[in-house]
Amino acid sequence: MSTAALSTPETSLRTRRVALEEAGPIRPIPLSRVVGVELRKMFDTRSGFWLMASIAITATLATVAVIIFAPDADVTYTSFASAVGFPMSVILPMIAVLSVTSEYSQRSGLTTFTLVPHRGRVVAAKAIATLTVAVTSMVLAMVIGVLGNVAGSALAGVDATWDASVSDLLYIVLGNTLGMLVGFMLGVVIRNSAGAIVGYFVFSLVLPGLSELLAANASWYDERRGWLDFNYAQGALFGGNLSGEEWANLAVTSAVWLALPLAIGLVALMRSEVK
Q1: Res 189 pLDDT > 90
Q2: Which of 49, 180, 196, 207 could be cross-linked to 97 through a Cys-Cys bond (beta carbons 3.0 to 4.6 Å apart)?
Q3: At CB < 8 A and 24+ separation, what contacts does 254-263 make?
């Protein structure tokens, strides 16, 4: 009698069980490895690579523009930091959006959530990877600003002016990080690349204009704007030296406009069907 004839579903199942017992307990994939995979996914695609490269490219172009066009009196580190900060405030949220929505637009979520069934660990890894890219990118931009300030001062024949303290730079990092988290939140809530990107530009460009218009025509809103407008409260970070009330404004608006929608989006993401 052949071996195949002796094989039954029961013996095959028993063989698999014995093999699993001999292999020992199955350990979950470490979070650090998931974070590493998410970081590589940000660079692996052509669009992801150029989006990351655009951080260094735009920071360099902004620095060169200040050197060429700024008057000698304005060749200060603050000028370079402001010039570099503007493109960063646009590019970093786009990276955060795509880190989430690419799983759905490119249908890679079918593979990702099969290899790591616990979606919460995947989302946490994406958030950690996003924040890592944000901080690293801003440090790189600040270094480029330092080099630009040194070179610009030398070319202009003036002394280098370092008019930004460490606390000012930390405020800028926090402000840009919050902006990136807004992009991450919109990616989690909308889960569509085009929709989330449009949503971010509406949130960051359209709503501030409407808020400014309302503040100019309604005194009650103008008096309470810090408690209601997230962009207004976040903008105070770029001025530095926040008061206690301004920190409270930032905490309240962040909870309403950032934390609450993110929590709702996470609940929906955990229950949604990945197609």
Answers
A1: yes
A2: 196
A3: 254/178, 254/230, 256/230, 257/182, 257/230, 258/178, 258/181, 258/182, 258/185, 258/230, 261/185, 261/189, 262/181, 262/184, 262/185, 262/188, 262/189
Given pLDDT bands bounded at 50, 70 and 90, which one contains residue 264?
very high
Tell me which residue has tokens 């990118």: 137
Identify the CA nearest to 105 among candidates 230, 183, 215, 191: 191
Q: Of 11, 31, 271, which is closest to residue 128 (Cα–Cα)?
A: 31
Predicted confidence band at 2 (pLDDT cuts at 50, 70, 90)?
very low
Measuring CA to CA, which residue among 109, 256, 84 is closest to residue 187?
A: 109
Nearest-CA neighbor of 158 among 257, 53, 275, 74? 74
The answer on pLDDT for 145 being more than 50 is yes
Contact 129, 99 (CB under 8 A): yes
**Segment 105-118, tens digit of pLDDT:** 777 777 787 778 78
Query: Nearest to residue 103, comparing CAs of 263, 275, 264?
Result: 275
Mean pLDDT of 156-161: 76
